[in-house]
Amino acid sequence: MKNPPEISVVVPVFNEEANLAPLFQRLTNAMDQLDRPYEIIFTNDGSTDHSIELLRGFHAQRPKQVRVIDFNGNFGQHMAIIAAFEHVRGAIAVTLDADLQNPPEEIQKLIAKIDEGYDVVGGYRKKRKDVWWRKWASKIINVFREVATGIQMTDQGCMLRAYKRPIVDAIARSGERSTFIPALAHKFSAKPGEVEVVHEARAEGESKYSFYKLIRLNFDLVTGFTLLPLQLFTLFGFFVSGCSGLLVLILLYRRLFIGPEAEGLFTLFAILFFLISVTIVGIGLIGEYVGRSYQCVQSRPRYVTKEVLEDLS
Ligand code: UDP
Ligand code: MG
């Protein structure tokens, strides 16, 4: 391998045709200014618009610097990043979104922090430019994640991040199907750091995350990093068995010493319905874990690549 780059910028792309040209312009400008050898790895995550033609154009323009991994379908943002991580040649990898919400000009801040000796640097968005319900949902999940997983991060959702190569390789080797890269990186990191970054509104197009996809992603985050929900359920189960045992004793006492009674029937129903609903949630929760284990056991390829455009000569 001749002259491996020092920095690999990783960009997942899913139907971003309107953003790619300005992104490429600003990204190459910002990276050229850093004056360190770099490469940009785009993963086309099954776009159905003209994104791939634009990416081919970028590769033709700068064949030695631009590499394109073209997926056979849509495998999700985190898989797109993992695929690129498997191709990274630089000592540092930087991830950012293709929709210009993460300004490329901020990359230098992350690199400076990496140079200070941190092995993972996360950006956190001071003023997040997203719809209100997403900001609130993120805040709630942030608190829950911190309690459940013990992973301390100001802003887990910000994908403007830098990683040193050993972390990148560890993530690529993880073999997980449904994962959340910032949390995974944090797990492998010996010295994580954070910097504040600017966040902009999406330049063009709409968020690729529907409400349902966001819920799935957050489930990945929780189930992928902690068994606490299952353990809480077991504890709750013990608590309820204790209480119902007590109730049986009280009812037995009343039956023996007071005689037959019919009151309290509806209270019992209410308690019963409540417990049934809790059980259903519990089954669903176990299902989330079992389903993910099942996918791992099947060990199908995590993604399928149609083509890789690169010139490594
Ligand atoms: N993305 C992807 N595959 C997907 C969904 C999104 O590669 O299935 C990319 C998308 O093109 C963008 C980044 O991931 O570069 C973040 O997506 P988006 O901006 O829609 O997410 P949001 O900013 O709303 O969280
Ligand atoms: Mg976005």
Number of helices: 10
Return the CATH architecture of the largest domain.
Alpha-Beta Complex
Order of helices and strands: EHEHEHEHEHEHHEHHHE
- Please tell me the overall pLDDT: 93
Can you characterise this structure?
The protein has 313 residues and is of the alpha/beta class. The chain folds into two domains: 7-206 and 302-309, Spore Coat Polysaccharide Biosynthesis Protein SpsA, Chain A (Alpha-Beta Complex); 228-298. Helix content is 52%, strand content 14%. An eight-stranded mixed β-sheet has the order 7-5-6-4-1-2-3-8, with helices on both faces. Helix 2 links the parallel strand 2 and strand 3. Helix 3 packs across helix 6 (165-173) and helix 6 crosses helix 7 (181-188). Uridine-5'-diphosphate (UDP) binds next to strand 1 and helix 3.
Topology at a glance:
Elements: E1 7-13, H1 17-34, E2 38-44, H2 51-61, E3 66-71, H3 77-87, E4 92-95, H4 107-115, E5 120-125, H5 132-149, E6 161-164, H6 165-173, H7 181-188, E7 192-197, H8 211-225, H9 228-257, H10 265-298, E8 305-309
Parallel strand pairs: 1-2, 1-4, 2-3, 5-7
Antiparallel strand pairs: 3-8, 4-6, 5-6
Helix pairs in contact: 1-2, 3-6, 5-8, 6-7
Bound molecules: uridine-5'-diphosphate (UDP) and magnesium ion (MG).
